[in-house]
Specification:
The complex is a heterodimer of chains A (about 350) and B (about 280). Chain A contains 13 helices and four strands. Chain A is an all-alpha fold. Chain B has a single domain, classed as ABC transporter involved in vitamin B12 uptake, BtuC (Orthogonal Bundle), CATH 1.10.3470. Chain B is globular and about 60 Å long. Classes of the chains: A mainly alpha (about 350), B mainly alpha (about 280).
Chain lengths: ~350, ~280
């Protein structure tokens, strides 16, 4: 499917793109001054989920690795931050360690899957199974004997009272609600710009090349497995960042972070938004979360029925997702108009 | 103690065979991993619960689950899967959507609470331990499923066609085999096996909308490690993981058993990336 992906992803972004990024940054800066706390909370969790969606969208759309288990690193990040911060009494160092620990796990898991060269669908299913096993294991830790340091794991009840992040250059108090908003929103923007920049580098070109034709890249002398493992670890880094922010946002972690519904939601965000762009998963997250909340308020009993139907319909009818489908429709209209104009 | 371990291992093998054979049949022939497999099992359990509630004997409830879920599988194949042949990733995603959809529908219709089968079975004393005698029913059904599937594939004309399509779908088509018909029937048969598995499990686990999740991770691992041959793969992978799961569960807990199964599977796939039977060209 050569036409599915834009070929100019490896080029430096144009001026209007930087303008859009700057505009987004300005909007992000002024929103907390103009809105109430509940909206800031809602938007913050949306940003957290957007990071998670970007981690899967990048890995699938650009590296061609379909991981159903980005929730592994999401959950691990959240739990690691919680356990470290509650044991150490500080939050800065635990934040960094919690973001990096899941990457180490990703390196081990990725080594076995990618260097073993198991097929694409096997990788998808194995990552899904790993996240399910994590959920089950965390659920089974309700007994008092499951303690790490001073923190009881509490099984399916989760760990409440996760300390908020204290940034030393801001003060001794943990981040306020607006602070979490700035942090998560700023990170969405930074990760988006960062991924866009990475795609213009040699590494980015190589992983896109591997997605297009792995054999050819190997014949050109690139070790495809190494590059795929790096991409897998990079995506794990973004997902664990999202998990740490989730723990800070809600002051709470629970085994649900690993579960099948959470994993399914990530897939739906990416599918609906469209994986062939970086912004697609971000938009998809916004659309689906808005829809889920709306369905919740109008009293549709089972939101999963609608989400499942959406997933089936998108796979059958719009496999490329909203943004690329819209983009193609606009491009088709544009060229039709163009041809008409020239015909006269 | 030895008796207990042997029994636990046998039970683990039977359970793994039961929950993964339907998935393996569909994967082996169609290269489709059905992520809604757990929900097919769940549906079978609900059919069993409803039938026994209506006063039917248990064996008739098993039969109803086999036939009912099989027909449901055929409907799913016609409405969803057949549009996605050749798009393996998309079948994975679409069946995941189906799985969410089914969980939601069943929760809406029957509520989130578990329903149980009001039947009681005696216990068997063996080596100083007592086991539920129903577990032997479970083992017998697993053995029967293997035997019947083997007999169909080995001795019937339909089995011959299925095996031919499995090896060379294009050649089978060229010889006049209706490939879509074969796929449809195979998907239905795989779904029927999942339904039967759910019905057999129902007296032990009851039926609840989320029960599928408890089985799928084991089933996926078994099928992936088993590889492309449905029977040889399932039996060998079930045997391997049954031994690991059964003995580790005996010494520690069932969660540790499941984790060690997964670790063993990931390490094994490092050595045999396409599963135990991945290199075998023909066979069942």
């Amino acid at each position: 499917m050569a036409t599915e992906f834009a070929s100019d992803a490896a080029k430096q972004p144009k001026l209007w793109w930087w303008g859009a990024v700057a505009a987004a940054a300005v909007i992000l800066g002024i929103v907390p001054t103009m809105t109430d706390i509940s909206l800031q909370l809602d938007l913050s969790i949306l940003f957290v989920f957007m990071l998670l969606a970007m981690s899967m969208g990048f890995l699938w759309g650009y590296a061609g690795i379909l991981s159903f288990g980005q929730t592994i690193f999401f959950g691990l990040g959240g739990y690691a931050y919680t356990i470290l911060a509650m044991n150490m009494g500080t939050t800065g160092l635990p934040f960094l360690m919690a973001v990096l620990l899941p990457v180490v796990f990703a390196a081990v898991l990725g080594y076995f899957m990618i260097y073993g060269q198991i097929s694409d669908i096997y990788l998808s299913v194995i990552t899904l199974v790993v996240t399910l096993i994590f959920e089950k294991s965390m659920r089974s830790t309700s007994g008092p004997e499951y303690v790490i340091g001073t923190v009881r794991l509490n099984g399916q009840n989760g760990i409440p009272g996760v300390p908020g992040l204290v940034l030393p250059w801001i003060g001794d108090a943990p981040l306020s609600i607006a602070g979490v908003f700035y942090l998560s929103g700023g990170l969405v923007l930074c990760v988006y710009v960062g991924l866009r920049m990475i795609l213009t580098t040699r590494f980015g070109r190589v992983i896109v090349g591997i997605r297009e034709n792995e054999r050819r890249m190997e014949l050109l002398g690139y070790d495809a497995r190494w590059y795929k493992l790096l991409a897998f670890m990079l995506a794990a880094l973004i997902a664990s960042l999202s998990g740490v922010l989730y723990a800070i946002w809600g002051n709470f972690v629970a085994p649900e972070m690993f579960n099948l519904n959470q994993a399914a939601q990530v897939v739906i965000w990416v599918i609906v938004g469209g994986r062939s762009t970086l912004i697609g998963p971000v938009v998809g997250t916004g659309v689906i979360q808005y829809l889920s909340n709306w369905l919740g308020t109008v009293g549709v009993g089972q939101v999963t029925v609608v989400l499942g139907a959406i997933l089936m319909i998108f796979v059958l009818v719009f496999p490329r997702g909203l943004l690329p489908t819209l983009g193609a429709a606009i491009a088709a209209l544009w060229s039709a108009k163009d041809r008409k104009g020239r015909g006269k | 103690m030895i008796v207990t371990i042997i029994y636990l291992v046998m039970y683990s093998i039977a359970l793994l065979t039961l929950i993964s054979l339907g998935l393996a049949v569909i994967f082996g022939l169609m290269k489709v991993i059905n992520l809604a497999h757990g929900e097919f099992i769940m549906l079978g359990a609900y059919v069993c619960v409803l039938c026994t509630d209506a006063g039917l004997p248990l064996w008739l409830a098993f039969l109803a689950a086999f036939v009912g879920v099989g027909l449901f599988g055929i409907v799913v194949e016609r409405l969803l899967i057949r549009f996605l042949y050749g798009r393996i990733i998309d079948t994975l995603l679409a069946t995941w959507g189906l799985s969410l959809f089914m969980v939601g529908i069943i929760t809406t219709v029957f509520g989130p609470q578990a329903r149980s089968v009001p039947l009681s079975f005696g216990n068997v004393q063996m080596g100083g331990m007592s086991f539920s005698s129903y577990n032997f029913v479970l083992m017998a059904v697993a053995a029967l499923m293997i035997a019947v599937t083997w007999a169909i594939l080995r001795y019937t004309t339909f089995g011959l066609i299925v095996r031919g399509t499995m090896q060379r779908a294009d050649m089978a088509s060229a010889l006049g085999v209706n490939r879509n018909m074969v796929y449809m029937t195979t998907f239905g048969y795989g779904a029927a096996l999942a339904g039967l598995a759910g019905a057999v499990l129902a007296p032990m686990t009851g039926a609840s909308p989320n029960m599928g999740q408890f089985f799928i991770s084991k089933a996926f691992v078994t099928v992936i490690v088993g590889g492309q041959l449905p029977l040889t793969g399932t039996i060998s992978a079930s045997g391997l993981f049954g031994v690991i799961d059964g003995s580790v569960s005996y010494f520690w807990s069932s969660i540790v058993g499941e984790v060690s199964t997964l670790v063993a599977a990931v390490m094994l796939l490092r050595l045999l990336p396409s599963g135990i039977t991945g290199k075998m060209r023909s066979g069942l």
